[in-house]
Amino acid sequence: MRKTKLESETKEVVRQIAIDPNPKGKHKDVGGSNQDAWNDWLTTGISMALPINQNDPAAANRAATAVLSGMIDMKPADPVEGIIISQLMAANQASLAMYRRAWAQPNEYFEVRTRYLALADKAARTVALLTERLDHHRGRGQQKIVVQHVTTNNVTADQAVIADNLVTNKPAGNAALKSVTASDAKPMPTLDATRQHDLVGVGEV
Asked: Both 34 and 132 in a single domain?
């Protein structure tokens, strides 16, 4: 009796990855990284993700140049911002492409036009969401609200102006100075205790 022995040979795949110990970050203005390997990879990814005929080199180069120019103007400070900005650009181009296809449909193809418009609106909402995420990552989404009550019963007019300036962080205008500034000739009136008028006829028979 002859026996057949099946041997499964496993080959170990080894990938050699070279990381530059002294990165120069020549293309950091695109991907936000000091490593140009990441910046170049992100550049290739966003260029291929654009809704353009990639078989037309001239059109593809124009689109990639325009989008990458916009990314440079948005100044990604780190790879996270590079990711968000690249996705924002791709979503924006997808939205515009869907809008263009929607209005290219004949009037009798109302349902098809509506579907394209729905996809365009969805991509536009994605653009707005990514913009908020970018602002939050950059710290713009954090707001600090300081509430301070200022009373002028026992302070001078100058102190009141200074306190208002500290609360609102705005310089006091001329109108505000005229309204609260007191002089020796005309002192600023103080607030007396609140007086209540006598009630007439209440409780009388």
From this structure: yes
